[in-house]
Design goal:
It is built from 6 helices and no strands. Helices cover about 75% and strands about 0% of the residues. It comes from Microcosmobacter mediterraneus.
């Protein structure tokens, strides 16, 4: 089993999810869809992007994705943007976020659970 293997299906899902995330960022400036549903989808987007390149079992890939998502969220708590002098940078705020919220961690977790359930059902 090769660690690096392109997967066209996951690449298409990643592009589709990126398009949806970009649309959400442009259309919704606040509220549930922008903040919570967007966070739910972003872990699925990351998962699909990574799975389009790396051939890892879902549980390992989900562990990587949730570690990245939680890591970025906790860096928000540590005020990373201020430390990097990027608090006024639109793209940095969009990609890294600017404020810590427990609800984001819940959304990431639910997104990862959704991935595991979906992958489990697809292997049956």
């Amino acid at each position: 089993m090769s660690l690096i293997k392109f997967n066209k299906t996951y690449a298409i899902y990643a592009i589709l999810l990126f398009t949806i995330e970009a649309w959400i960022a442009v259309v919704f400036k606040s509220g549930f869809i922008r903040h919570t549903f967007g966070d739910f989808l972003v872990v699925i987007l990351l998962y699909c992007a990574f799975k389009s390149i790396f051939n890892l079992k879902p549980k390992y890939m989900v562990a990587i994705v949730i570690t990245i998502a939680f890591g970025i969220e906790f860096l928000q708590l540590a005020n990373l943007l201020a430390f990097l002098n990027l608090e006024d940078n639109y793209w940095a705020k969009l990609i890294l976020g600017s404020t810590f919220h427990i609800s984001d961690l819940i959304a990431y977790t639910l997104g990862c659970i959704t991935i595991l359930i979906t992958e489990y059902k697809n292997t049956k």
